[in-house]
Write a sequence for this structure.
């Protein structure tokens, strides 16, 4: 009899441990697709009723307007400053109300930017809210105003510098270069093509290859940018 009781207790203990293990696994997966978890931050409140679902938060019904107002009101009280926002409230078309809102916030001491967005999923009749973080990118002006002179090297800086006349093309190139993101990482992946420009006294190398990221180099530093089709078209001329 004692052996049976001991065996029963052992089986119960085993299932308790197994249940605890699976509960922990489920709990761990609850937030696995999130870059920021509001419950872990005292300065990021969670709107009452939202439930985590691996990649976002959901609640039954259409509540995105109330959620939008909630964060516009509460986050500034906790030291956040809004840097960008938009919502379907700005759209006069009523049928677009489901599209919700997006907002980007910054705060001293927070690593990067906080993004909060929401929309109404009409098919499932619930509101979805996404919290995300991403780095703060910086751009600096390398070329001030419209260059008095501009040319492009025929052979990547070794041959003659062919004068550029079209002011619209020159301005477009300057705008793209100035908008490039500062690249602090000293490592640069090789690119098969290089185009070298000279704008007044600033010499700029553009390293590119297919749909890979573009590197822009000068004595002012290094920048990186996406392979924008318009920019690729400009430097291919």
């Amino acid at each position: 009899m004692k052996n049976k009781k001991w065996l029963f207790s052992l089986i119960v203990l085993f299932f308790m441990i197994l249940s605890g293990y699976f509960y922990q696994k489920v709990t761990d997966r609850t937030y696995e697709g999130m870059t920021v978890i509001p419950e872990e931050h005292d300065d990021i409140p969670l709107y009452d009723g939202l439930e985590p679902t691996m990649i976002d938060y959901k609640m039954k019904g259409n509540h995105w307007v109330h959620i939008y107002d909630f964060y516009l009101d509460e986050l500034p009280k906790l030291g956040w400053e809004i840097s960008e926002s938009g919502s379907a409230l700005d759209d006069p078309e009523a049928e677009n109300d489901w599209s919700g809102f997006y907002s980007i916030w910054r705060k001293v001491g927070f690593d990067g930017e906080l993004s909060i967005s929401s929309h109404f999923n009409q098919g499932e009749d619930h509101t979805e809210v996404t919290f995300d973080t991403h780095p703060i990118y910086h751009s600096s002006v390398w070329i001030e105003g419209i260059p008095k002179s501009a040319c492009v090297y025929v052979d990547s800086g070794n041959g003659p510098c062919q004068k550029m006349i079209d002011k619209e093309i020159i301005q477009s190139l300057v705008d793209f270069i100035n908008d490039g993101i500062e690249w602090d990482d000293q490592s640069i992946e090789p690119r098969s093509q290089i185009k070298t420009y000279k704008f007044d006294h600033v010499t700029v190398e553009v390293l590119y290859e297919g749909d890979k990221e573009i590197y822009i180099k000068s004595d002012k530093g290094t920048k990186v940018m996406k392979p924008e089709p318009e920019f690729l078209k400009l430097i291919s001329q």
